[in-house]
Design brief:
By secondary structure, the protein is of the alpha/beta class. It folds into 2 domains: 136 residues, Alpha-Beta Complex (Aspartate Aminotransferase, domain 1); 275 residues, Type I PLP-dependent aspartate aminotransferase-like (Major domain) (Aspartate Aminotransferase, domain 2, 3-Layer(aba) Sandwich), CATH 3.40.640. Helices cover 36% and strands 18% of the residues. Strand 8 and strand 9 form a beta hairpin. The radius of gyration is 22 Å and the shape is globular. The structure holds pyridoxal-5'-phosphate.
């Protein structure tokens, strides 16, 4: 088949057989899909040979670019041995070595690694560990079975993850099956729900957390947070010391701090983990997206020796953590993750990133002059640009105008792939992007906004 024919044929098959995530399929089948065939560093190449800059890092997973020779090689080497064997009753070298490596780089205090497959399952594992921990710790506190989460939080699409998330639009059909969790307001400083300004507000939006903890700590197993920045909410960074204050409250009221580092982990915010910005030690930490450098589905829930110890006992005490997925600790994924973490050292990824983060901030500044750009939010290599009708009044575009969507379509035409969240344009380049490519991304983004809005 000629390449063109193949492309057309694949497009037809896609429309005939596939169901895409977070996609209105009725609209999807109206146009030929972009079919990505290859990747090269920060570029994705479609079946027509068109090159696009990967401005979402393939939905926030890619770290060192596509087809990094070291990760490619690590997977090939592992493939010559075995692709998969189970962790139930057996172990494997990449899973063992990666666990050690993760503990070496994780915030101090975390000492045990439990594998799963994706961000949602890593969060589910953390929630289940928290509940079972309180039931088994001495003296036991079996009433501690609910959680506290933040409004607009996102912790995954499984029922547990949804229960501690705050994105109303995604949850509506499922309210009846979600379990109870207390929602507290998130510090959204651009649109402060309390109409206050930082720092004179003294982070007043934290008082509901303290109140709930005071009244209900005996029923609360943990507080779930996206440390430093709520990503899916529209890249909304939290004010300084916010995370630290949550940590202090958790300690004071004896509830576990569950840090969902699925989006922020592995350098995304400028540090290896976002918790490091405020020297916060979580009791449970979920990682996934960047774990394998964006190569394979793999996730881990890290926890402390104290929590781990509460699960020890004689067989017939039934203290075992009865949880595990078929592909847990997959050797190919673990080999990719090991290679990815080694690259951080070898290529001085975080050191080089510092300069790029600063440059990215500089490049974005001039965009602020456009009347349709309300807020530019940056946390390391995560950027959210909120489009508004008028940046003095902060009047939002109605969601039905699909402004974000229209701008990303324009970006696509100009060779940059990004995905909007409502009226927020989200830019998350691979950490390995060069200065030249970074400049090109911001330029296309600025031009596309101007062209559309
Ligand atoms: C993406 C994400 C998840 C869910 O991860 P999946 O791999 O999509 O299941 C959970 N929490 C956060 C903060 C995320 O960004």
């Amino acid at each position: 088949m000629k390449p063109r024919t193949t492309q057309k044929h694949l497009g037809t098959l896609d429309h005939r057989y596939l169901w895409h995530p977070f996609t209105q399929m009725q609209e999807w089948v109206e146009k030929a899909p972009i079919i990505i065939e290859r990747g090269e560093g920060p570029y994705l190449i479609d079946s027509n040979g068109r090159r696009y800059l990967d401005g979402t890092s393939s939905i926030w997973v890619n770290i060192h670019g596509h087809r990094h020779p070291k990760i490619d090689k690590a997977i090939r080497r592992q493939l010559k041995r075995v692709a998969h064997s189970t962790m139930l009753g057996l172990s494997n070298p990449p899973a063992i070595l990666l666990a050690k490596k993760l503990i070496d780089i994780a915030p101090p205090g975390l000492s045990r690694v439990f594998y799963s497959d994706d961000g949602s399952t890593a969060v589910e594992v953390a929630l289940k560990m928290a509940i079972q921990y309180w039931a088994q710790v001495k003296p036991s506190q079996p009433r501690k079975q609910t959680f506290i989460h933040l409004s607009q939080a996102y912790h995954g699409d499984t029922v547990g993850g949804m229960s501690v998330s705050g994105v109303e639009l995604f949850h509506k059909p499922f309210h009846a099956v979600l379990f109870q969790s207390h929602e507290i307001p998130y510090p959204h400083c651009y649109r402060c729900p309390l109409d206050l300004t930082f720092p004179s507000c003294h982070i007043d939006c934290l008082s509901p957390l303290e109140e709930i903890l005071q009244q209900k700590h005996e029923e609360i197993a943990g507080v779930v947070v996206e440390p430093m920045v709520q990503a899916v909410a529209g890249v909304i960074p939290s004010p300084p010391d916010y995370l630290k204050k949550i940590r202090d409250l958790c300690t004071k009221f004896q509830v576990l701090l569950i840090a969902d580092e699925v989006a922020t982990g592995f350098g995304r915010t400028g540090k290896m983990f976002a918790c490091e910005h405020e020297d916060v030690m979580p009791d449970l930490m979920a990682v996934s997206k960047g774990l394998t450098g964006g190569y394979m589905p793999l996730a881990a829930t890290l926890t402390t020796e104290k929590i781990y110890d509460a699960f020890l006992g004689n067989y017939d005490e039934w203290k075992t953590f009865f949880h595990g997925h078929s592909y847990t600790g997959n050797p190919l994924g673990c080999a990719a993750a090991l290679a990815s973490i080694e690259i951080f050292d070898e290529e001085q990824t975080l050191k080089k990133l510092k300069k790029k983060i600063r440059l990215l901030g500089e490049l974005l500044k001039p965009l602020k002059q456009q009347i349709s750009i309300g807020d530019i939010r940056q946390c390391g290599f995560m950027v959210g640009i909120e489009l508004v009708k008028n940046n003095t009044t902060k009047t939002p575009f109605p969601l039905t105008d699909r402004m974000g969507h229209q701008v990303t379509k324009e970006c696509q035409r100009r060779g940059l792939l990004i995905r909007p969240i409502g009226n927020v344009l989200v830019l998350l380049p691979p950490l390995s992007v060069t200065i030249k490519e970074l400049k090109k991304m911001v330029k296309i983004l600025g031009q596309s906004i101007q062209a559309v809005v």
